[in-house]
């Protein structure tokens, strides 16, 4: 007799994907005017799932590092496209004058400070401590979306929103050279004099330049192909999904093939492509599509984080681990931001917001998985634990408090 109930695991995966997609569609709208942000609820859903089926959800992150890396990588590049399309005047100094300070001053301070705290409190080995400092240094373009500037067609005079959007757009790519610094420490030894020249020429100069050049050219060429060569009557008929993915995947893939930083290329390509007020409505449709795709993968990723939190709750509740995360979130990043923005024309509240809301999230997950796949780091599980705590606390603290900030900004 033919079996009526199929036990093919593929069907279960399809069912899970459908449920996750539905959650991604409903929760952001349900919580639109609430004090909770969607990632908080996704974490709770993951924790509940883990408690309900603990025997099936206790997994080793290291065994799935490659899959986690690829999912988080895709989420980040989609978010970078989304952020780049929101930048109204990408070639104006007014757009970057605060974020450049955050990139050049706050980011290095955060790396150094978190490195020291990771080594001192958690006992991470030097290379691992440096990696910890690097991977929690970028402001996440995914979770920072609640504080990003408005969609392309809508004007936004908020210095806070613009500063956080432009900072998040670039520093996810700029964390790569420092990630390689940690990888070189782990793979080639603490005697940096043997490899510092190679690191600077290749990982800093070459890869950043390639990312910038390819990103600019890709954004410019795609804009010309879509809006200059094709007739105006056909602009509205071009699929926003196809175009959004092309704007994301073409610069990223080409830059990575040439050995550059694809994160930088994607963000710059989106900035260049969206730099036209007359086409703002078209940019809105691209932005809306990338945001929808981003939501689905963020839902999946943070449900998995919630599952992992439940499975390792006793390791995560270590006093030194929690203390390290709180110091990073409440002292190191805010202090670094305040130093960078000192003597600017920002109000005290604006300085506080730009300094405090260095949200950590998907970018940190990507860099963690990327580095662990490139070299062997001592204390890798301790690193995973403290990074998880930083991300979870950032989601909770920043997610809940952002509702207050929105009322003043």
From TrEMBL:
Q: Which organism is it from?
A: Confluentibacter flavum
| Domain of life assignment | Bacteria
What's one GO BP annotation on this UniProt entry?
proton transmembrane transport
Molecular function in Gene Ontology: antiporter activity
Q: Which GO terms describe its cellular component?
A: plasma membrane
Cation/H+ exchanger transmembrane domain: residues covered = 21-405
**What protein name does the entry list?**
Sodium:proton exchanger
Describe its membrane topology: Multi-pass membrane protein
Instruction: Show the stretches that span the lipid bilayer.
Output: 12-31, 40-56, 102-122, 168-187, 199-226, 260-277, 297-314, 320-342, 354-372, 384-405
Tell me where it resides: Cell membrane
| Keywords of this entry | Antiport, Cell membrane, Ion transport, Membrane, Transmembrane, Transmembrane helix, Transport
Checking PANTHER family in the record gives: CNH1P, NA(+)/H(+) ANTIPORTER 1
- Major location, coarse class? membrane
**Among its keywords, does the record have Zinc-finger?**
no
């Amino acid at each position: 007799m033919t079996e009526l109930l199929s036990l093919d695991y593929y069907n279960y995966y399809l069912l899970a994907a459908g449920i996750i997609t539905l959650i991604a569609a409903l929760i952001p709208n349900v919580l639109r005017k609430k004090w909770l942000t969607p990632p908080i609820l996704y974490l709770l859903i993951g924790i509940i799932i883990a408690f309900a089926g603990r025997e099936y959800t206790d997994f080793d992150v290291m065994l799935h590092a490659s899959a986690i890396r690829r999912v988080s990588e895709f989420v980040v590049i989609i978010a970078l496209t989304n952020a780049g399309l929101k930048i109204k005047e990408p070639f104006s100094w007014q757009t970057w004058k605060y974020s450049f300070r955050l990139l050049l001053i706050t980011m290095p301070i955060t790396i150094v400070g978190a490195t020291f705290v990771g080594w001192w409190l958690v006992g991470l080995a030097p290379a691992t401590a440096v990696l910890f400092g690097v991977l929690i240094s970028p402001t996440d373009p995914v979770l920072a979306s609640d504080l990003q500037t408005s969609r392309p067609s809508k004007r936004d005079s908020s210095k806070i929103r613009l500063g956080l959007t432009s900072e998040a757009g670039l520093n996810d790519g700029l964390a790569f050279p420092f990630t390689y610094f940690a990888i070189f420490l782990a793979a080639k030894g603490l005697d940096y004099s043997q490899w510092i020249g190679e690191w600077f020429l290749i990982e800093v100069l070459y890869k950043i330049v390639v990312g910038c050049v390819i990103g600019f050219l890709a954004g410019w060429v795609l804009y010309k192909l879509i809006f200059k060569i094709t007739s105006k009557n056909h602009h509205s008929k071009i699929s926003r999904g196809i175009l959004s993915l092309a704007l994301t995947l073409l610069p990223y893939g080409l830059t990575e093939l040439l050995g550059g930083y694809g994160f930088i290329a994607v963000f710059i390509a989106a900035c260049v492509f969206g730099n036209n007020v007359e086409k703002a409505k078209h940019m809105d449709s691209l932005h809306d599509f990338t945001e929808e795709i981003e939501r689905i993968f963020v839902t999946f990723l943070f449900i998995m984080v919630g599952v992992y939190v439940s499975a390792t709750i006793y390791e995560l509740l270590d006093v030194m681990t929690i203390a390290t995360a709180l110091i990073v979130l409440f002292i190191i990043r805010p202090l670094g931001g305040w130093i960078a923005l000192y003597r600017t024309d920002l109000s005290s509240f604006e300085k506080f917001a730009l300094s405090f809301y260095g949200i950590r999230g998907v970018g940190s997950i990507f860099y963690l998985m990327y580095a662990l796949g490139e070299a062997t780091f001592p204390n890798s599980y301790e690193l995973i634990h403290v990074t998880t705590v930083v991300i979870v606390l950032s989601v909770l603290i920043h997610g809940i408090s952002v509702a207050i900030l929105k009322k003043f900004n």
